[in-house]
Amino acid sequence: MALSVTGHAEMLLGAEMLLGAAMLSVATNVRVLIILSLSLQAFLILFARLRKEGTGRKRPFIRWLIWLAYLLSDKVAAHTMVLIFSSKRITSTSTGLPTDILLFWASFLFLHVGGPDSITSYAQEDNELWKRRLLWLLLHLFLPLNAFSNSFSKNKLRLPTILVLFAGITKCAERNFALYRASFAHLGMYWGSFNVNMKDKEKEGETVDDERKMGTGSRIPVQFQGVEDPESRLGTAVQLFGNLKRALVGPLLTKPEQKIIRGRFLKIKSSKEALRVLKIELSLLYELLHTKLPVIDTKSGICLRMATYGCILLALVLFSLAKRHYQLGEFDMLLTYGLLVGALALDFLSITLLFKHSDWLAISHFQRSNGKVFDRQDRWSNEVSQLNVITYHVKDMPVWLIMNKLDDIRDLRALVKDIKGIHCQSFQNLDCKHWRFIYYDLKRFPKNTDIEEVWLGRGDEIRERVLELEQWEMIKKLDYTKCLLVWHIATEICYQNDEQYEPKHGRTDYRKFCKLLSDYMFYLAMMQHTMMATVLDNWNTVFRKTLKRIRSEVCRSCSNEKMACEDILDMKKGEEDTLFSAVQLARGFKQQKNHYPWKEMSLVWVELMYYAAINCRPNIHAKQPSRGGELLTLVWLLMNHMGLGTKYYTTLGDVLKRGDSDSDSDSHSDSDNPGDSYGTVPSYGTVPSYGTVPSYGTVPSYGTVPSSNVFVN
């Protein structure tokens, strides 16, 4: 009997010890998770903007850290809430925490779930899931409300808790509304209702000018409608931003609308100014899709934000008065003050950084600071990703022998390709002369050029004038996929064998430009699959066969790209595959009287880029600003403003029905293009249907090549 009593006592003692350990563990876990949640908010406020500036592209670990912090911020807050409300009854011993304090801490977690103003979504897909997030918030809101109602009468911190909970719910509502506003479904729904309203007004006899028919005023955010000078860089960016939104989700433009947009864009005086305008537009797109700015930068949004800030400040005062009722440890007291002061400080820091780096706020609040505000360098970094097939094979060859074995395993091919791609990837700055070349090459299309004329030609003029090759018929039969790879390899061979090329003083380095575009297009094909999906047919198979052939031709002792290119150029006649076609093309260039025709090769590369840009789906372009931006997206936007986008007409029949010979006002002066003529404009033919890959071995008919003085500084 005594033994049984002793055993029972030991069991009770053991249970008590386990309960104490559990309470201590729960309290410690809650403290650690709350500190982690607050730290994640601070990290996102400080570094989320780096996605837009391109830092994340050059340093992938920063992008991964932002992605990890974005995912953890919600998970940590949700797990902490579950932990708190499963432990709220453990308050009877010194190791537990008062229920009032636990509820007070839980209310701060809703502030954290609301997230910082600088990042509401990591990707566009997150915006489309706003309904699921709303349901998630409602379910998690039930826990604190239920617990708070049960202890309301005894809770000495009920007023501070209510204030912080109100602020948290407000922030959650802001974020969810921002997600809803940024979803393509909402943007598309706006355009449908807008068109109906315009038609109704016309039926009622009200005069609706071209600007209103296009929705210029209505589709510009209300914060931007007070821009005083519509002819300034700022005013142009604001007006064209509506066209960007319409290119993403809106209806197709009519020909008069196309003329208005093209005329407005061509009022820009230089290619440098045009690039700045495009950067501002993409920056605004990023802030529309991935931040709270469209929601909080309104009268109601500002009032709610001031109320939120006031609630937290008042909660700090009330807690300071009520703390004498609790025997909190020093650490818990500091933690509570840290949550209150941290919420105020992070809110202030978030707004400060937004005013410093946001184009949205700069436009709506600093419209007269055109020169200073809009010349800053925190938009696209001008860095163009580079990847080369020869480097892909040569770089660290002994290490890649193991990777190549893994590459033979079908399930690991994609992983091996991505790892090798990241390792071999590099970056080059887009020179202002290179951008000028692209800008004026697109601008040369005259005022009456229709969309079908851009995608037409078969390159006969350039072929007869420059590329007089016996192998032309073989290259002409290639589709876009093989053509891209053939031109890429041929360009690399020519680049490595023409080191003596020196551009004239102040002129464009076309050799460097060809190399930049060649490596960039190969990078897109290898690493940005979604951007090239509509133009590349069976890329993986073609690339693997070509890489296998390169491995068989290049000696393993080759330590650099130049030696590898020499081995490839010396290859004997074999199977007429992609690599052999590239070698034939490079040999043909080498035999030219004027040696390598880099300017004409540049024209080929920009045409290949134009086709990829305009055939990439608009929603894919919309994702790029949050990833640091892409040159291809800038080119797509430039083409849309020039009136060369495929979204202007549905079919060729629509174009013919619209037949309109009205002229477009393109005769505007250019500060960096004084008095140059682009010569004969080519006749292009029919438009390939969207997503259909044409036979792209042909070089586009570009008319008379622009005189080189166009590209002088």
TrEMBL record:
<keyword id="KW-0472">Membrane</keyword>
<dbReference type="InterPro" id="IPR007658">
    <property type="entry name" value="DUF594"/>
</dbReference>
<feature type="region of interest" description="Disordered">
    <location>
        <begin position="659"/>
        <end position="684"/>
    </location>
</feature>
<protein>
    <recommendedName>
        <fullName>DUF4220 domain-containing protein</fullName>
    </recommendedName>
</protein>
<dbReference type="InterPro" id="IPR025315">
    <property type="entry name" value="DUF4220"/>
</dbReference>
<keyword id="KW-0812">Transmembrane</keyword>
<dbReference type="Pfam" id="PF13968">
    <property type="entry name" value="DUF4220"/>
</dbReference>
<feature type="transmembrane region" description="Helical">
    <location>
        <begin position="21"/>
        <end position="44"/>
    </location>
</feature>
<feature type="transmembrane region" description="Helical">
    <location>
        <begin position="97"/>
        <end position="114"/>
    </location>
</feature>
<feature type="transmembrane region" description="Helical">
    <location>
        <begin position="64"/>
        <end position="85"/>
    </location>
</feature>
<keyword id="KW-1133">Transmembrane helix</keyword>
<feature type="transmembrane region" description="Helical">
    <location>
        <begin position="302"/>
        <end position="322"/>
    </location>
</feature>
<feature type="transmembrane region" description="Helical">
    <location>
        <begin position="334"/>
        <end position="355"/>
    </location>
</feature>
<feature type="domain" description="DUF4220">
    <location>
        <begin position="67"/>
        <end position="392"/>
    </location>
</feature>
<feature type="compositionally biased region" description="Basic and acidic residues">
    <location>
        <begin position="659"/>
        <end position="671"/>
    </location>
</feature>
<dbReference type="Pfam" id="PF04578">
    <property type="entry name" value="DUF594"/>
</dbReference>
